What does this fold into?
Amino acid sequence: MATSTNYESPGLVTQNNSEYYTGEKTYVLGASGAAYNWPTELNPLIWTDTPTAATPQSINNYEVYIDNILMIPTVGGYVSDSVATTLTNTNDPATATQAVTINYGTGISAGSLLTIRLQQTTVWDNYQSYQYNSLKDIVANFMLSYVGTDRVIKRARRSEIIFHAKRGLQEFSYDTLKSVNIQELTIPANLSLPLPQDYVNYVQLSHIDSMGIKHIIYPTTLTTNPTAPLIQDNQGIPTQDDFGNNIESQQSITNENWRNANQRNLTGTNFESTDANVYNWNWWKTAYGQRYGMQPEISQQNGWFTIDNRRGAFAFSSDLQGKLITLEYISDGLAFGDDTKVPKMAEDALYSHILYSITSTRVNIPEYVVQRYKKDRSVKLRNAKIRLSNIKLSEFTQVMRGKSKWIKS
Amino acid sequence: MAINVNTVYTTVLSILNKEQRGYLTPFEFNKIATQVQLQIFEKYFEDYNQFLRMPKTDEEFASRVAHIEEEIQVFEEYKSASSHANGVYDFPQDSNNKNEVYRLGSVYFNAVPGTPQIELVGRKEYKQQLMSPLTKPSKSFPIGILKNDKVEVYPKVTTFNPTRATSISDVKFSYIRKPKDVKWGYTIGSLGQYIYDPNSFPILSTSLLVGQDLLSNTTVTSNTVDMTVISGTTGIPSNITGNVANTNGSGSGAIVNWTTDFVPATNPGNFTSIVVSTAGSGYAIGDLIKLNPEPSSNFGGNGTGTTSITLQSSNFSPVNLIQGSTDFEISESMQTEVILEILKYSGIIIRDPQIIQAAQQELVQDEANEKR
It folds into this structure.
C-alpha cells in the first residue's frame, strides 16, 4: 500500500513505507560541512551531551553510516578518523527542521552514500505507534469538540481537562488497559529485587525454565516483612539514638530465617537423595503440605514471594536464587509525561470519563445529565475493556476444545 | 472594507450646512471621528457577547455572530513578543514602540513543537497547579501569568533546554489591536481653502528623527562590542560620535552618539544606546544602516563591534501633521452609524439640539432593528 502523502485528504499515517520500516534516510554526500535535513515525518533525532536535556529513553537515537560503514560516536558528535557530525536543533526536536552537518577530511569523498539511521529501539517504538494516541492529542481533541459555546461544556480550563484526563488514564491503567510492562530479571543471592521505577501493582511474577515456559510464582502469607525491626534493651524496651528516634536493625530476623529456610520442608518436595522429613517423627508438625491431605497453596515448587515495604523490594524464597524470572506489573500510565500513550481502543472511554468527571463536579448541571454521562462512561469503559481483553472467538474455541467442550461458532 | 474618511466628512458637512447650521473644522472632525470609531469598535465586543448568548442561525449572511467576527477580524494580530528577559515576554508593540494589545486573545508557546496555547492563570492558580503533580506546567501544556503587560511563561525555555538561546518569537500573541486614529488630511489651496489629501498619514520626511534611540527598533542585529583584545589602560570614551552608513539605500549625513557598557580588556559588552544627533537626509523605511566606522578603528584600533539597524517609521518625523489621511478601519457596513454618531457629537459642538435629537432617534431605531 502506497503511503505517500495524500494532500486532498491526509490520513493519520505520515511516514512512507521505507521511513516506517527502516527509519533511515539516505543522501549523496556533498562537500564537507554540508547539512542534511532530517524528514519531519520520522522520529526526531536526539543527540545531546547535556544530561539535563536527555529524554528518559535515550541520549542518542541515531547512527551515521558512510558507504555503509558505521561512524564511531564519541562525545560531541560522531567522530571517526575523518568524520565529524553535528546535529542542529538537538535538544528541542521538531521545533524547526533538524539538520545533520557532516564534516570530513581525507579518505572520504563527495558522492559517497550517507545514511542516517535511527537506532533499533527507536524504530521498534515507531512500529507500534499507530495503536496509540498521546495524552496531549486527547486533551486537544476534547477541547476542540466538547468545550465552548454551544457545546456540552461551555467553559473549562485546560488544566481541569488535563487533570481529569490523567486521572482517567490512571484509573484505566489499573484494570482496563493492557499491562505492557514486563521486566526480565535474575534473582540475586540476597533474594530481593527492587520495585520498578513506575511500579503501581504487580500482575504476575513467573520464573522461566530452560524451555522458556513460565511458572507462576505465588505470593505467600507464611512469612511477613517487618517494617520496623527494632533493637531492644534487655528489658525489651526499644532503644533510641541521639536524636530520640528508635534504632532499627539493618536486617530483619524474620526475613533472615525465611531466606535460610529449606523450602522442601514446606512444600514436601521429596527427592531420593534428600530427606523431606516425611518420615522423620522427630520433626515437629510444621511440615506443611506433605502429610494428611495436601494443601495446594503450599504444595507447589515454583517458589514464593512477598513484598518488603520497608525496603521497597520483592523478597523471594530461597529456592528461586539464581533463577530467571519475569515481573509483569502495572503502572499508572503517566510515567513518561505528556507523550503518555493512550490505546485507541480506549480513546472514546477516556473522552466520556473526562466529560462525566467535569459535569459531575460542576454546580447547576441537572442530575439527569450527569447520570447520562455516567452511564455513557460506564458503557464505553466496558467496551474498551472487552476490546483490550483481546478475546478472539477462534482462540476461545480452541481452548475450550481442550476441555472437551464445544462452542458453536 | 474601510470607510473613506472624505466620504464621511463631506456627508457630515452637507447635512450640517443644509440649513446653514454651522461648520465642523477638520481638527474637530478628526477628534470626533476617532472617538466615534472607538465607540463603535468597543460596542463590537459587547454585541459579540450578546449575540453568542442569543439563539443563532448559520444561514449565510444572516448570522450576527459571523458578521461581528468579520468586523473584528480586521483588527486581529498574531505577533511575537516585543522583548524578553528571563522567561518574561513583553506584549507586542506597534511601529511607534507602543503597546499594541487592546484585547488579548490567546498566547502561544512557539518554542516547542506544535506551538501549544499558553493557559493564562493567576499567581494563586499557578501555585496551586505547581503543587499538583498532574497539572504542573510542561512543554505541551505551558501556563503563563500576566503582569504589567508581560507574560511569565512556565516552564521556561532554559529549564527544559539549557543550551537553547531564547528569542522573542518563543511566545506568540493573538490579540486585537486598537483602530488607528481617523484623520482627514489636507493641503491649503490658493484661496486658503482645505483640499483633501488622499495620501496615507503620516507622510514622512527622509531625515531621521533627532534624539531617537535606534536600539529600540524592532530589528537590531548583533549588538556586541568586544574589547577583550585591548590591553593596558587604553582610554575609551563613554560617548562616541560617528557617522552612519546606509548599506542599501541612498541616505547620508546622519550622525549618532553611541554608548556601550563594555569594560576594556575584560568582557565583551553591548551598545547601550545609539541616539541620532544629526538627521541627515535621503533615508527611507526599511533601509539597513550600520555604524561607520565600526568600533574596530574607533576604539583604540583593536576592538570589534557590529550592529545593524533596519529603519522603521518611528525613526522618521512626519513632514507636517496636517497632510495625509487615515480612513476609518471599521467596515463600510457601519457607515450610516458612523455619520449619525458624528452628527450627534457635531450637534453638541455647534449647539444645535435638533441635530442631536434627529441623530439620536436614527441611532436608536438602528439599534432596535439590530438587536430584535
Observations:
- Chain B is about 25% helix and 25% strand.
